[in-house]
Amino acid sequence: MDVIIKDSFFDDPNETVFWNVTDFPKNELALEMHDTMYIDRNSGLYKGTLGIFNHYLLYFKKQTIKKWVNLDNTTIEYTKHQKVGLGIKITKNKQYFEFFGDVEPWYNYLKQYCIQKNFTHHYTLQKKIGQGNFADVFKAVNKQDGSEYAIKCFRKAKLNESIDRLAIIKEISIMKKIQHESIIRLYEVFEGDEFLFLVIEYLKGGELHKYMKKSPPFSEEKSAKLIFRLLKAVSSIHEKGILHRDIKPENIMLRNKDDIDNICIGDFGLADYYSQSGQYLFTRCGTPGYVAPELLQDKVYDFKIDIYSIGILMFILIAGKSPFDGNDYDDVVMRNYYAKVKFDECKLSVIGMDLLQGLMNKNPIKRLTAEEALNHPWFTTDNLTKTCQFKIRKQNQNVSKKLAYFDMNIKQYSAISTQFSPKSSQSNHSPYCVTKCNIEDSPYTQNSLVSLKPISTPRAQVANKLRQVQRFQIPLKQL
């Protein structure tokens, strides 16, 4: 009987084979698993030796790798054989491979890389905690142990463009590769007939910018603790060759309410792997007012764009206002574009100001790396003790207005992104951002300031329950 294989969202239209028969790229292997299994071939069973190395399934013949397959975004499910019992079926590009034996440990390992089915067998959706253009977010409970998770549900019918697929696959790939205590974790991915389900860590504390509104401004000691944790997380991201590209208070979460010591970076919808040539899926992206000037200027950029964004956050924590505070959107973008920062408005100790200017140096060559910043003397115990005695500038009577303006800026200039706040029903969840450029654009594109106009498309329209967010390509209008 012929096996009918349904189309998968993760199928690569340019690939039609399952196994790779070229030489495996690694010479020395530390296998995660290695065993003899019953392999189904042409409706018959035979014994074969399989192994797992990271996210690769290896087929051995006489202790030599005969063929191999990259398991990222392949579909995995249990199957049964009337003679040998439980097995695993792996499907990729409408081709499949089945093997039988003691497969449960294999399944538990492989599911971190593969796409699973039968979501409702594992989780119970409870209440909606977020809504966006492309996805809804639900709080859910694992049926086996009762643990709470956030489930991001993408409706596949809305993801009908090729760039949709590329954006989501890249986001999933990046999140799977990052394991750090201060970075939101993606646990599992499921695909159903209508939806994609991303099982993500459930963060109860809400967004940092909401916490900042309740306790402005931060002392240097409090700011140092937060910035240090953030730099450690970003350093981990950079070590894996990944740029976040959208670090801002809205994308930094608290695991528990008012627990500023346990922050977590989220929203990897705009993240990408570093490209020396400057070629990215989205080149100009991020949120004006929170990005490095070289990104707005269409220059080739690297990991240091994230460092500049951390510097902006440090400024906001201490000063209670944005370093690019302006009269309107265009004014904010202009100040950000030319890196016009009034450092004297941020009342810091001498050693603190030295770090801030190192993080926000408009010349990326002179700007600090994450590792250099982590070794800065501002983070030492002795200096933190001294900064406690340094009198932070008191906010004047307009502090509430500044905070309201700050909150308005975040909502107005935010990208439609894929991260969410578990406490908010107004978050957007989309593989798109409002500031992305065409997939063929590159940092070498000669876009003048006048030519960067807002994009108005049906995708920018959101439900009434969402905050009003405009979709932009870094509009600068006239200088």
TrEMBL record:
EC number of the protein: 2.7.11.1
GO terms, molecular function: ATP binding; metal ion binding; protein serine/threonine kinase activity
Keywords from the named record: ATP-binding, Calcium, Kinase, Metal-binding, Nucleotide-binding, Repeat, Serine/threonine-protein kinase, Transferase
UniProt-listed PROSITE patterns: PROTEIN_KINASE_ATP (PS00107), PROTEIN_KINASE_DOM (PS50011), PROTEIN_KINASE_ST (PS00108)
Residues covered by the Protein kinase domain: 123-379
Needed cofactors: Mg(2+)
Highest taxon listed in the record's lineage: Eukaryota
Binding residues annotated for ATP, in chain numbering: 152
GO biological process, one term: mitotic DNA damage checkpoint signaling
A Pfam family this chain is assigned to: Pkinase
Catalytic function, reaction form: L-threonyl-[protein] + ATP = O-phospho-L-threonyl-[protein] + ADP + H(+); L-seryl-[protein] + ATP = O-phospho-L-seryl-[protein] + ADP + H(+)
Membrane-spanning segments: none
Cellular component terms per the entry's GO annotation: cytoplasm; nucleus
Keyword Nucleotide-binding: yes
Family note: Belongs to the protein kinase superfamily. Ser/Thr protein kinase family. CDPK subfamily.
Protein's name in the database: non-specific serine/threonine protein kinase
Organism: Paramecium sonneborni
